[in-house]
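Hi team,

Filling in the usual template for the complex we talked about on Friday. All components are listed, including any nucleic acid strands or ligand strings, so the model treats them as one assembly.

SUBMITTER: L.P.
PURPOSE: interface mapping
COMPONENTS: four
RESIDUES: 836
SEQUENCES:
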Amino acid sequence: MRDASIYAHQGFANVLGFGRKSAIIFVDFTVGFSDPEIFGGGNILSAIEASESLLKAGRELGVPICHTRIVYADDGSDLGVVAMKVPKVATLTESHPSGNFVPSLMPVTGEYVVRKTQASGFFGTGLAAWLTSRGADTLIVAGCTTSGCVRATVVDAASANFRPIVAADCCGDRALESHANSLFDLNQKYADVIDSAKIIAHLRGSGGQ
Amino acid sequence: MRDASIYAHQGFANVLGFGRKSAIIFVDFTVGFSDPEIFGGGNILSAIEASESLLKAGRELGVPICHTRIVYADDGSDLGVVAMKVPKVATLTESHPSGNFVPSLMPVTGEYVVRKTQASGFFGTGLAAWLTSRGADTLIVAGCTTSGCVRATVVDAASANFRPIVAADCCGDRALESHANSLFDLNQKYADVIDSAKIIAHLRGSGGQ
Amino acid sequence: MRDASIYAHQGFANVLGFGRKSAIIFVDFTVGFSDPEIFGGGNILSAIEASESLLKAGRELGVPICHTRIVYADDGSDLGVVAMKVPKVATLTESHPSGNFVPSLMPVTGEYVVRKTQASGFFGTGLAAWLTSRGADTLIVAGCTTSGCVRATVVDAASANFRPIVAADCCGDRALESHANSLFDLNQKYADVIDSAKIIAHLRGSGGQ
Amino acid sequence: MRDASIYAHQGFANVLGFGRKSAIIFVDFTVGFSDPEIFGGGNILSAIEASESLLKAGRELGVPICHTRIVYADDGSDLGVVAMKVPKVATLTESHPSGNFVPSLMPVTGEYVVRKTQASGFFGTGLAAWLTSRGADTLIVAGCTTSGCVRATVVDAASANFRPIVAADCCGDRALESHANSLFDLNQKYADVIDSAKIIAHLRGSGGQ
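RESULT (copied from the run log):
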């Protein structure tokens, strides 16, 4: 049996739909992830470009917006398993240029910035509490990498009962096979995976909810 | 650039190695996941067979062992986003046969059973606290599905700084492409992915540590 | 400076008020906590009596309701630090009479039952996810003991940005000084502490929101 | 029945003892909490003085050390329930003098600094993961306020199965009754509460374990 057909046979991939109120998260769109010599590559640059429209629409409509970045301590005191696997994450410190947001997706005042050291935007952060404070039950997800921090964030969102809506064209990965496979898996089990044009159309139609 | 080569170029996939003390987790090896008509299929049956040897060795050597199963309330009061996406998970209740462990991997007295409603064995459970109480810093992972509950558990283990060692042949998935891709991703970013024979050899050589 | 005055001087104890939508939690009103020979005593019986009215009103008005109980594994495989400090918690197993709810506050179908091993109803459970799935931003809290599981649950609710409203007369403790002091602390820092009559009046006035 | 006697009758307050390896946490010893006009008062200054000796001993013996401070975003985007209850916490931003550590307990390179927005040092932070990475199973706790951030941190440590050892004289509170009552409660249910002299003696005797 081919992959998609066994999922269909077992009743996966139902549509969540948008809930009562959405927020948008931009995961790890930082300089280091836009540069193939550091952590970038693949289709990340096109994801950044698509995300610019999503961010613009979200701001116009007053949607609660947050951004994540990886920040390790200057002295490495909080490095752990991930840094054993991928030592270069240790360079992503507070003031290192690689760790700053790309200029076109720079947070503005009032947008919540999640500092994190792990893949998921929820792990060891205030993200769930922030969504609760905003009354959000739906989390629109853009970011990189699809198979890394995006996927981990989406899985945690689903576990915490925030409906994840993945903006497919706003997600990028250095590895295109992993990108495609993660979007497939996420759509089967955890999230609605749709294009940002449809998401923006929904937000415009609902007055930003 | 092909997927593996960009990871190599950016310095991923270093080896974690075993830490000071290991525990083993068997993720969701329950009846429903062994049956292709429910949630099974693919290479899950062969993962069960390989896991029998790992469990036997772990027991002989006194390694702390835990097992996860999905348990939803009989009245559906704890159903959430995942059950919207995959409605059939609602059948996995306390006493439904689908939710019980497969006979060959049935927990015995003293082994910790994690009841969970989400993909990750860590989310909303006492798993991290149990590992801490056992002094474990390394988590050997077997189970199904590779791209679902295994992957989510491994990512959370890495985030919590327990070194994940994935027993490749003891993991199974209904979807073989997703299985292979998840093992690839996990090995690049979060875990050592090795065969159970090597894991058992390590445990024997270290007296079960 | 007396305790209350320094808090006033520093600007503590502002009123949260009810949010958009409330849920009610009844913490650990089980047989063992109603019996002074086990874990009961103090004013717990009067808290149970007051809670009966709160539960009745909540049900009439369709407020989402949950109940917590402590459940340890029969084989003690999940005992930890709290059980070192208070060994008798090990008796609170699935089928032991001490661990069952008191008859007058027995959950009914559709009410969420949180199984927990720690003080807080949030720690290692699906409580936050359940509140999110219900769209609740406010958590009305009754239960025992005030200085133990109630307080821990309230602190976590505030941390997760669910507004805690403590029903003062529906909370009880084996130790009356600790009860009074915890209500004082909670009201200064984390919660509104008010009588259940006022809470019920609010719920009636808002149609159960 | 008096408070202590009912606890004794029910078998509370057993001794945890030190485990295999300790870490030390200094909770919120920042300028704002040392000043009675901001968040200080009571016996916090004497707790700071006692903590200086504990920190010195910990450093000499190579004990893993961490420090917590409250840090809210400059734009208030992460304010939540606690800030509704205590609005002045909004002043504790990255660069505001109130939020910086007191000079005598300033972290040095290699000591882990936990940035937090909630009472507990564990909530929404990497503290548990850091303890795991250090192989610690015991958490020595100093800080302020005893009834606030110290207590919440201790309760979470116990829940996560890190043995909490509270350095009684190194904890302070603006409210002396709450201080005494919290030490009493913590010792009954969650932690060993002992003087720092005994803790330092243990660490010296065990070579910093």
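MY TAKE: Chain C has seven helices and six strands. The CA atoms of residues 16 and 173 of chain C lie 24 Å apart.

Thanks, L.
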